[in-house]
Structures are given as structure tokens and as C-alpha cells.
Amino acid sequence: MATVRYMVEDVQLSLTFYTDLLGFTVEQRMGQAFAIIAKDDLRIWLSGPKTSAAQPMPDGAQPQPGGWNRIVIEVDDLGALVAKLKGAGVRFRNEILSGAGGKQILAEDPSGNPIELFEAR
């Protein structure tokens, strides 16, 4: 099983997003600061601003959400999922792109972390 840590601004908001819209389940929760969610062979650690992972680095850099590294969720019907997510107010970084391997789009969780939704050919 792969584990990814995402820095998030609001653990509860992120839990709602991942469980209600993308089908993850909650494995563990530590108050408002941290949660572990899972889907298939992927676990995500949702680390809020009060977790040890959010402490400043020695040079003063502050870990924060966003960036371009991302998880990829493979789906059967990308168009239908995108319509559902847009209806829920989810923000996207682009429109659906088609390539040799299939179609993809980048959605953002409530903290701005990217999620690639991918439909294979």
C-alpha cells in the first residue's frame, strides 16, 4: 500500500471532500489536526497546520498545501466524475486533456493539493 502525506488547511473539510466526493474511507482521526484516509491501495495522511509535519524547516520554510506532485485516481468515466465534482464546486486547474494513454484532468482538494483524475483508453 502506498502512503502520501498532504498538508491541508482544514482536516474536516478535506475529509468531507475525499470521502463524499472521491470514495475514500476514514481509517484514523486525531481530532482536528490529522486523519488517515484510504482507497484501494492508497492511504493519504491529511496533516493540518497543528501537526508536527507542519513545523518550519531549519531555513524557515513553512510546509504548505499545493504544488504539482499529486496522487492519481484512475476512474471509469472521467466526464461523469468531472460533472459531479464541478456541481459540488470543486476547482480544476485545467480542462480534460487527451493523450496516448487516455484522458486526464487536475482537480484540487479544498487546500489546493492537486489530484489527477485519469481514464485509461
Biggest β-sheet description? 4 strands, mixed
Poorly predicted runs are none
Roughly how many Å apart are the termini?
25 Å
Give the beta-strand count. Answer: 8
Average pLDDT works out at 95
Please tell me what the overall shape is: globular
User: How many helical elements?
Assistant: 2
Structural class: alpha/beta
Report the helical percentage.
Answer: 10-25%
Question: How would you characterize this protein structure?
Answer:
It is built from 2 helices and 8 strands, in the order E-H-E-E-E-E-H-E-E-E. It has 121 residues and is of the alpha/beta class. The chain has a 4-stranded mixed beta sheet, with helices on one face. Strands 5-8-7-6 form a 4-stranded mixed beta sheet, with no helix packed on it. The longest helix is centred in the N-terminal third of the chain and has 12 residues, at 11-22. The chain starts with a strand and ends with a strand.
Set down the secondary structure blueprint:
Blueprint: E1 2-7, H1 11-22, E2 25-30, E3 34-39, E4 42-47, E5 71-74, H2 78-87, E6 97-98, E7 102-108, E8 114-120
Parallel strand pairs: 1-4, 5-8
Antiparallel strand pairs: 2-3, 3-4, 6-7, 7-8
Please supply descriptive tags for the structure shown above.
2 helices, globular, 121 residues, four-stranded mixed sheet, alpha/beta
Short description:
The chain has 121 residues and is α/β, with parallel strands linked by helices.
